[in-house]
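Reply to dn_fold:

You asked what the input looked like. This is it:
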Amino acid sequence: MRYDCVIVGGGIAGLQAAIQLGRYRHRVAVIDAGDGRSNLCRCYHNLIGWPEGVSGSELLASGRKQAERLGVHLVHARAVKAAKEQDGFVIETDGNEHYAGDRLLLTTGVKDRLPPFSELRPCLGISVYVCPDCDGYEISGKRTLVFGAGKAGAEMALTLTHWTDDLIYVNHELTAIDEHTRENLERRQITYIERKVSAVITEDTVFKGVALDDGTVLEAGRCFVALGGNEVLSGIGAQLGAKLLDNKHIMVDPRTKLTSIPHVWAAGDVTVHSEMATIAMGDGSQAAIWIHKSLMEQAMPANSVNMTATH
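and this is what came back:
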């Protein structure tokens, strides 16, 4: 079967786009390996209509059901290769399956670099966070430990002073920071420690603190992770020749989400913007609107009205 659009990535942006395209009654396939960052978040706090929060897995499960009701074909696999054909694109998966589409949407996202402590995973989104714009509010007035590396961790700690003045920054990887940054940490009265973390202390989903390699135990009720070096999953776009920024994010038209490759769109965290679920939803919908316009223009006679004049 050939699809009107193949979506690579079934996170928040990808599913939102699939739902919109399904409502346009297009034939859509979503290829997703199920290990995106939204699967890790145990609670999104900043989504309208969810005042008590909602987990990423719950949100995605609901989105998949909604998409399937609209006829969207969900494929549990990892896309490993993309090729341009004369009249569209073919995506190959790690199961050696091939999916052809007239249009392609990349919503492959970003992979966070997290510390190798499994105890942190159940706490993500509940007492351990990665995004200050999403969850800075959750640490208001609370003692918070920044589990970081070098300047990335220092900048996170400085950002968090908007919500709390009780901060500890542990430079776990002992990465050097410049004197100016050190002075800023001192001026904002952020406790700065250059030691490796040897153990993370948690109780179910509650972060309690860390033990350092010298035996010191640091207690804190909240934690932000900021190691830097997150991986932008733009490899499929790069295979097709899409323009990337120096940080590997895919460049898109800010209005349409179209990449530098005709009939290839990108949305969500793989593009450049604040990495938030709410923005990913909007990105996915916006990309779907313009994909639909493109498909409709292709189906219309050349002298028909240009549908790209709106939105």
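The first helix runs from residue 12 to 23.
Hope that clears it up.
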